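Fold these two proteins, one after the other.
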Amino acid sequence: MGIRLPGGGIPTLPSGDLDEAPDFLHPISMLGICQNPESIAVLRHSVSHVMAQAVTRLFPGTKTAIGPAIENGFYYDFQLPRQIGGEDLAAIEAEMKRIIDAKQDFVRVELSREQALERFAGEPFKIELINDLPPGETITVYENREAPAAGAPPQSGGCVWADLCRGPHVANTREIHSGAFKLQSVAGAYWRGDEKRPMLTRIYGTAWETPKDLKAHLAFLEEVERRDHRRVGREMDLFSTHEEAGAGLIYWHPNGGRMRVAVEDFWRQEHYRSGYEILYTPHIGKSWLWETSGHLGFYKGNMYSPMEIDNQDYIIKPMNCPFHIMIYKNKGRSYRDLPLRWAELGTVYRYERSGVLHGLLRVRGFTQDDAHIFCTPEQMEAEILEVLRFSLHLWKVFGFKDIKAYLATKPAESVGEQSRWDAALESLRRAVETEGLAYEIDEGGGAFYGPKIDLKIKDALGREWQMTTIQFDFNEPERFDMTFVDADGKHKRPYMIHRALLGSLERFFGVLIEHFGGAFPAWLAPEQAAVIPVAENVNGYAQKTAAALKARDLRVTAELEDERLNAKIRACQTRKIPYMLVVGQREADEGTVSIRLRDGRQLPPMKVEDFADYMEEKVRSRSQEL
């Protein structure tokens, strides 16, 4: 059903604001088959109607809700007389093909409100949608009509099914290729996204113009599944979640911890080199901090309820900025002190509904790669350019080179003088253009307190993820009465810039795992090398070799299990260990290792010390190559 209504359809994804947005972004887009976006959306919307017609035929008594086209597919929500599952999808697909083969016309019909209410009597969700339409709104129905008799005029067949819909649709089901769609899954969805409303059954599907396009898309989805960070995380023992102990919270295992230390050490090193100082702030604070910042007014739904301590309300922090402001205000500041660049890997907590939690990508507790820059107006442009350069540097080190910028402009509700908005936006634009980045304007997409740059990266599958945000703030310096003494001796407001380069470490690791499919470059890999003895009599040499490499700060294990050599190699490949060092008696006698890469290639044998030098260089240079 194509009608757009408040509270209906797909929940809007967060914009990426550092403070106001929940900590999650699905890929913005997927690498798919080149299609005309408008025509393929019309096709998918039409297929959703065919699916709804098939479902109501197979399950009498079904109540229909909504069924839009979405990216790469469609869905439809139903209230069914019985529970269905994936095993029912084949029967629904078969019925859809019969409908397509019947060559039904899609015919648009306009109705009065009274006619529409009468037409959909007994359909509670349609009745609600009709009643919510504003007075005077044109109400349209799309009828699926049977093929007209031979010689009869077009669109003269009788109506076999109809849906409340704005359209448009294809003219006839013959335009839908019966081999170019597939139903994919069954899920639950609350009516209009409201947990207090009925739980409906949602059926997802995908539809394309040709079977070849469908086949390519399904192959892409198989690769997405193979790289799914939750699957890879289990296989490589990186992290886990435990709903019985608290939903949306991440437990980092030793392997994940090793990776996280490698990333955090690099992050700190690069921040110090770029003129930042690193802060640590509390996990809770008095509620007046968030009253002053405005978050309790704008963001309360994503914050946890206050806790009472010493007869005062404290809140577990959803963001770090009020604490950084407290440090700024700890003493008087001069223009000579600015800019101040303060960064923190600060763990914050935000409420998310349980139904949207998703591995590392949408969580309730996460560590934000956060920083705030306090500067004079004259320093603003240089600081923005430096932050952008810093961000691009980090992403390229991690292996992401396809990056696009989005400039988010002033929304309808905002604070701050127009002149400051204009100057800030122009600084953002010049920084992006100086770096030669492709960019688009996101009209009205800024936060209420300032414009921003969002950087979106493409992963190895061509999916675009929104990650970095560089954001002005005209709000908090005013609310917290932040000042500095300028060269003329007058107290002035500093400019405040929020920025998160990697976003949150949890989401970043989710994207990183899927980008590499777990086959990380050696400097990031939780296990960089495994020493594999060919027989028990060289276990001692294997242990000695592993110890020597560990002494060089390399992450190495000795595989001493009572298994065949090939089984050990397969196990190491499953763990995606970059280097497998096979040792037998000859290697023990010569002090060498035979080197097998995880992709099956082999390097020439090396002395243990030479291999350690080789590995240290790979780690030092953060090479993407083995």
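Now the second one:
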Amino acid sequence: MTDPIYKTDALIAQDIDQYLKVHEHKTMLRFITCGSVDDGKSTLIGRLLYDSKMIFEDQLAALEADSKKVGTQGQEIDFALLVDGLAAEREQGITIDVAYRFFATEKRKFIVADTPGHEQYTRNMVTGASTADLAVILIDARKGILTQTRRHSYLTHLIGIRNIVLAVNKMDLVGYDQAVFDKIVADYAAFARSIGITAFTPMPISGFKGDNITGPSANTPWYKGPALIEHLETVEVNSAADADKPFRMAVQWVNRPNLDFRGFSGQIATGSVKPGDAIRVLPSGKTSTITRIVTLNGDLDEAVAGQSVTLCFADEVDCSRGDVIAASDNPPQAADQFEATIVWMADEEMLPGRSYWLKIGTQMVTATIQQPKYQVNVNDAGGSGSHLAAKTLELNAIGVANLSTDKQIVFEPYATNRTLGGFILIDKLTNATVAAGMLHFSLRRAQNVHWQATDISRDFHAGLKNQKPAVLWFTGLSGAGKSTIANLVEKKLARMNRHTFLLDGDNVRHGLNKDLGFTDADRVENIRRVGEVAKLMTDAGLIVITAFISPFRAERDMVRQMMQPGEFIEVHIDTTLADAEARDVKGLYKKARSGQLKNFTGIDSPYEAPEDPEIRVDTAVMTAEQAADAIIARLIP
């Protein structure tokens, strides 16, 4: 392995251990570079790596060769190639993914994220910005403020980055003209005020030529501000501000190596903690006192924001992963309904009413999003983020919506605490991250609505009826025979003196769901409502039979999660599209084929067949009577 070409340093030569000790205790700054396409983000980072001597000899040789072969700077070094690692990026000269790079100076260590400029990769920019303390927003001096400049500035402010550097790049291509620089800064200042950015640090630079990167440039004698590296070395990082906030630590792991030790491990989000401090575990509210702060290198007298530690309590308090340990006299809130800003990151649009996993800190719960209150228009001419009406959110859209969780979570507003206020949404079926969000506040109605205990239990209701509650959930294409078989099942159960109720898809849409159409979002809401009704009926001890196309696996799984274990029985009435269309009792397929009926399942709207249903009825080999008998045999052995 080749040696990195560090500058000769007397301390390294004389005492390498002392040098490493000094390096270990340097503060860390995480920052991002963002802006529009071809504003020079990758080139700037390459220049920082090159000037800080963080390139190995073989990397430098490869860089020089690649610059001649695929570079964009003629025979000179193309610094962007140090960062643009993907073949597609080098071929197109753009950044697609988020590239993270580490470098250090004598005063500080840095992790920089080079984020994409293309609008279609906005979700990648949000990912890079989520952990950053500072943003360097680049503007091409020849082009001025562009749409992506406004978009990335808005997102940067939204995510909570308050240290912003406005780097007017490529000053060498405008002759280092101060008038050009001043005009861009004035335009940006007016825009920044409109979206709530109250302060930023402007500087004229050339990432390619190195002007005002590591030191003052003779080409800009009119600029009296700091060079970029000087500013990065001295700016206050978020962790310093977090240390002054109340103590908060999300539990990542219960550390139990033996019977004599029990501790709770995690990274301190805000504040500080010492042995003897009174703490409160949330959401349970149990209290105790810190006895030890354990680390790999021994116990600490005090731990502060940013440190990963294991805390020991004086009392045997129930505490597990996902709980939050906080200052006893100043704990965070717990709630299950919120207003939040959501940045949608999936190719498929958001479906209001669909349940997703919500991960906030180390907590993982089920969450449901309501229809957005509005979508933010970050592309309007003024860039002030005007509001647009929206029924859903598409890829890279930003909106504000209410959401609810299946149980209370410990939180603080994102503006106060990024760890306990920032969350991601995860698709339950694919485990793909579909959105990032920021909690604003808990809804007042969540504080006004409480669960009222009743004396007659669901077990008592079922006992009166001498049966076990269940939901027979029939799913299949239109015309498959769901309603016919469901009706037969109910008749047979009635003869057996079983207490049932049949919820048929068409009948429900005459009343409870008469306000819903057949868009994907309305289909999700249709099934959510039916699921809630079915749950109430099982609480009453009934056997509920439903006959709905219910085309999406996610919603069928959502209803399954509402029920007690074993009570949800998925019945797939498996009929081919050709057979269902041939029957076409209601004439719906004919209308759909002719274009008179939109969003019809199997034609222009998808049907996701069950992968592992409890019961599968193949209508090609079973009659309706046979199917009904088989279903009852499964229900009542």
